[in-house]
Amino acid sequence: MALTKWLSISALLGCQSIDKTITSGPFTIERVIKKESNGSWYNNGTSPFATDKAIYYQIRYKGKKISLRNGESDDKLFYKALFLNHSGKPAILAGSAAMYLLTEKNGQLKSELLSYNKDESGSYQWLDSENNQPGYSYKAYSQPAAEDNGYLDGGKFLLVNNNCVLDVVTHRFYPFEKNSYEAHLKSGDFFSEHEIAAGFSPNRTQVVFVGYKRKSDNHLKHIYGLIVVDFIHQTLTAVPFDQNQTHFIPEHCKHPEWLHKHFEWVVDENGREKLIARKSENDYWKGYFSGDLPGTAAEDDYYSLQPVKSSIVETLKDYLIKKWNASLIESRKFEDSATLIFKIGKAEITLFDNIRQEKKISLSTSLASNTAENRALVRQIGKDLNAQLASGQFREYFDVFD
Q1: From CA 60, how far away is CA 397, in angstroms rounded?
Q2: Which of 88, 124, 131, 192 pairs with 154 at a CA distance of 20 to 30 A?
Q3: SS3 387
Q4: CA–CA separation, 289 vs 367, rounded Å?
Q5: Residue 300's CB: how many other CB atoms inside 10 A?
Q6: Is-contact 344 326, C-beta < 8 A?
Q7: What mean pLDDT do residues 363-378 have?
Q8: Closest Cα to residue 13, out of 71, 58, 62?
């Protein structure tokens, strides 16, 4: 593969400028900085001429700018354009709502439409980057630091727009449907609420999503199930599960550990892998840290317990005062929630009571003291609470989901 590097240049194009370029083989990706109206002047009283910087990409093939037809219009600027590592020859993933694969065949540009999200930005997620399990899901407009070199790296199988799997080595891709009418019939009316992959089969042919359907007697309540898509054989199956028995909360769809703990892959009579629920164990609810979920920023880390009864509030209040020498400095009550702010040393720790709405209580630093040191203190407290739950303490304060 040709030597590639970013070049900073100052080519001005009216209200836009090319910030960086990277070239590989016959392809060049140019990062374009555009000035666009921020649209906020009407609400906050700022100048109607105020602008923000927006990042786009344009692509050249053999020096000529390309545009791609997505079925309704021509795409010339893209939210995302990245060279695919491990492809053996130059290949680009590019797109905004429509996501394309660009390669060269017989000395000519070859463009293939992988998937088109008509109503929202495109997305992509490695299916095998975390010990052969899914990694974080990115929107096309995101700008993760790991992509600053112009390459997308991390695995072999890439989920595009949640409905197409791309093999970045062979460039074969496998579109599938999981939320169409026909797919709902196959899955028993389960709908994929969480638009990220939760698991990947050992033989790397099946993707797992968390889905739900509404209860027949109460449409505000859900029955959960796993939607398993075999993108090679184009089959779809559902594995219903009990939310309370598996201790499932929606955040767990981002964490492969929950899936591995409660489900396993077996080989059926036809020699194909099949996902089934593990035999129930004598398990218990425990708290979780949001910072352990893929893609969560360090400053957004907090500890939560769910589902819990309202009686846990006074118990946790006493626990913080006696165990951590905390002092209650402020208490705020709202219609459906409450906030208790404690002082522990120099740190302000917030206990957020959202039990009436979500049966959930959370522990975090206050906005005023959100430092790495104080977040580490929240981690200490959460780990101690989990240790006490493991020994049988506090379990009587847990409820069940309806």
Answers
A1: 61
A2: 192
A3: helix
A4: 17
A5: 13
A6: yes
A7: 92
A8: 58
C-alpha 175/C-alpha 115 separation (Å) is 7
SS (H, E, C) 107-123: CEEEEEEEEECCCCCCE
Kindly state the percentage of the chain with pLDDT values over 90: 56
Identity of the highest mean pLDDT range in 70-74, 86-90, 356-360: 356-360
The mean pLDDT value of the chain amounts to 86
Q: Is the pLDDT of residue 47 over 50?
A: yes
Q: Is the pLDDT of residue 5 over 80?
A: no
Helix or strand or coil: residue 222? strand
- 329, amino acid identity: I
> Residue 36's closest CA among 52, 47, 12?
52
CA distance 204 to 196: 16
First vs last C-alpha separation in the chain: 57
Confidence of residue 216 (pLDDT cuts 50, 70, 90): confident
The CA distance from 258 to 122, in Å, is: 27
Residue 125's nearest CA partner among 208, 204, 196, 201 is: 196
> Could you tell me which of 297, 329, 208 has the C-alpha nearest to residue 258?
208
pLDDT tens-digit profile of 121-134? Answer: 899 999 999 999 99
